[in-house]
Design brief:
- The chain is globular and about 55 Å long.
- It folds into three domains: about 60 residues, no CATH class; about 60 residues, no CATH class; about 110 residues, no CATH class.
- The protein is α+β, with helices and mostly antiparallel strands.
C-alpha cells in the first residue's frame, strides 16, 4: 500500500512527504519509514516524531499483512519548540562524542557553506558509521535534519537542572546551580531576563551551553534503544542482538565496572532510578502519557540526566566514562547493577 504521509512542522503548518510504503510494525501498528527509521503514523497520515518509536525489527509491508490495520494516535502536543542548532565547531565536538545528529546537521550545512563542508569532511573520519551519511541524498539528509530540529515533548517539560550536562565550564555549572527553576519549554518561550539565571553568568555563555546541551539531550532521546549505536567502535557481547534494550553491555563498559564495588554500581543505578521516578511524577507529563509509556520515555533520556543526583564532580566524570563506554541512556545506567 502506497501512501503520501505528512509531517507536522508547527501548530498550523504541515508538509506532504514523498510516496512510500505503509508498514506494519512488530506490535501491529501502522508505520512508515522516515529519516532512516520506522515511525508510527496517525490515521490522518501524520508521521509521529514525538512519541516512543516502534521496534526497528520484524516489520512488514501492509500489502503482506492480513489483519486489521491499527493506527497510533498519541496525545496532541500543545507546543512545538524548535532546536537552536549549535555552531559548526560545536557540532564537530558533538560528533566526536558519537552524536550522529551532529554529523547530519553538518551534512545539511555543507551544501551551502565551504567552511561547514570542511568540518563535515573531518567529522566523517570520527566514526566508521559516519561514512554512511555521505551516501545520503540531500532529500534524505533533510528528512533526518527536520526530525532532529523538533524538541521532544518529554524534554520540553524537563526542568533545566536535567539539561546542564554534559557541556559547560565550572563557572557555568556553579551559577546554573543557583538559577531559578524553569523548564526547557520556558527557556524557548520566555524572555531570557525573566528566567532567573544569575547575572554574573554572561547571557552569551549561558545560551551557548544551554542550547548545546538541549541539542545533545534531544539527539540522544531520538536514538533507538534497540540499536547498539556505538558497535562500530565498541565490542558488544553479541552485536547481532540489537533488540535487547539496555542489557547488551559493551566489553569496555564491563571492564570499567570491574574496577568498581557493587555498592558504587548500585549507587549510580539508584541515581538513574531517581531521575526516572521524578520524570514519571511530572504533573504535566502524567496527563499526556500512560504510566508505561512515560517510563519508556524516561529510560530513553540521556544518562547525563542523572548527573544532578551525583555527589561531586567525580560522579559527573564517571557518568561521562559510562557514556563513552556505550551506556548512553538512563535505562543503561538503571541496569548497571545487573
Amino acid at each position: 500500500m502506497i501512501i503520501y504521509p505528512n509531517l507536522r512542522l508547527s501548530h498550523d503548518n504541515s508538509k506532504t512527504l514523498s510516496r512510500r510504503d505503509l508498514m506494519i510494525a512488530e506490535n501491529g501498528y501502522a508505520s512508515v519509514m522516515f529519516a532512516g527509521n520506522l515511525h508510527y503514523i496517525k490515521s490522518n497520515g501524520e508521521v509521529v516524531l514525538t512519541d516512543y518509536p516502534p521496534s526497528q525489527i520484524n516489520f512488514v509491508p501492509a500489502r503482506e499483512f492480513s489483519g486489521s490495520i491499527i493506527y497510533f494516535d498519541p496525545p496532541d502536543i500543545t507546543h512545538f519548540e524548535k532546536i537552536v542548532l549549535p555552531d559548526n565547531e560545536d557540532l564537530y565536538e558533538l560528533s566526536s562524542m558519537g552524536v550522529d545528529a551532529a554529523v547530519i546537521c553538518l551534512r545539511v550545512r555543507s551544501r551551502s557553506s565551504d567552511s561547514a563542508d570542511e568540518i563535515y569532511q573531518r567529522a566523517l573520519k570520527l566514526r566508521p558509521r559516519y561514512e554512511n551519511y555521505n551516501t545520503l541524498t540531500f532529500s534524505e539528509a533533510t528528512e533526518y535534519y527536520t526530525k532532529l530540529t523538533v524538541v521532544d515533548p518529554i524534554i520540553s517539560h524537563l526542568n533545566i537542572s536535567y539539561i546542564t550536562q554534559p557541556f559547560g565550564s565550572g563557572h557555568f555549572h556553579s551559577h546554573m546551580a543557583k538559577s531559578d527553576s524553569f523548564t526547557v519549554s520556558e527557556y524557548f518561550t520566555n524572555s531570557y531576563d525573566t528566567l532567573g539565571i544569575p547575572s554574573k553568568l554572561s547571557k552569551k555563555t549561558a545560551q551557548k551551553y544551554i542550547s548545546k546541551n538541549i541539542f545533545f539531550q534531544n539527539s540522544i532521546k531520538h536514538e533507538h534503544a534497540d540499536l547498539l549505536i556505538e558497535k562500530d567502535r565498541l565490542v558488544f557481547t553479541d552485536s547481532d542482538k540489537d533488540c535487547v534494550k539496555f542489557t547488551n553491555q559493551s566489553r569496555e563498559l564491563l571492564q570499567l565496572c570491574s574496577t568498581m564495588t557493587n555498592d558504587t554500581k548500585k549507587r549510580f543505578s539508584r541515581m538513574a532510578e531517581e531521575a526516572v521516578y521524578r520524570i514519571c511524577s511530572n504533573r504535566h507529563l502524567i496527563t499526556l502519557y500512560d504510566e508505561k509509556s512515560l517510563e519508556q520515555h524516561a529510560l530513553n533520556l540521556s544518562i547525563f540526566c542523572a548527573s544532578q543526583f551525583g555527589r561531586d564532580t567525580n560522579d559527573k566524570r564517571r557518568i561521562k566514562n559510562f557514556f563513552n563506554a556505550g551506556a548512553r541512556k538512563l535505562g543503561d545506567l538503571v541496569h548497571l547493577r545487573n
